[in-house]
Here is the input.
Amino acid sequence: MIVFSGLDGAGKSTQIEILKQYFEKKGSKVLVFWSRGGYTDGFELLKTILRKVLRKKLPKSGNTPARDKAISNVKVQKVWLFIAIVDLIFYYSFYLRFQEKILRKVVICDRYLYDTFIDFRLNFPLQKFENWVIWKILVKTMYKPSSHFVALITVEESVIRSKQKFEPFPDTPEVLAKRLNYYKKYLENNKGIYINGFDSKSDIKKQIISYIEKNEN
Here is the structure.
């Protein structure tokens, strides 16, 4: 399993597609899996069901005043986080392991646990979710990637590229700066492979494939 993390616009999607084609040419089946805590297909299905059951009691998805008001409630935050973490245990601990170990697919993840950690920390600064037993179970049981690439660019460049891609809900420069700091700390602790998002597509491709082939041997 190979994981890609990093700032928006740093080239993750491009390199994931290149890597997907690389493995498919070798005859491998490939699963590209995108995830963010609280935004998986399973979580979205649950919210859809709850909206039908509760009707107007549950706010619509998206950055709306009603949603912001609901999620500002500390109790709602805890319930939301708990369900999101349980949901991730299914995907990260069972689903992805099944895809690779049983179905023999190459799994390429667009974002993974650390990206969710950053999301949770930035969105719920008062919640100490990392101390919860359910979070520790997730960390302990999740399927560990063989390679974790972290693509970074400057905050200014991320803003420019997000506008060019017409991102519907782009992060503010302040939030991007905080994300960048988290990723830098992660790399400083030797927990990922740094990818310079300013390098050419071909140079990044060579770096990634060279690392993967070296690990395979």
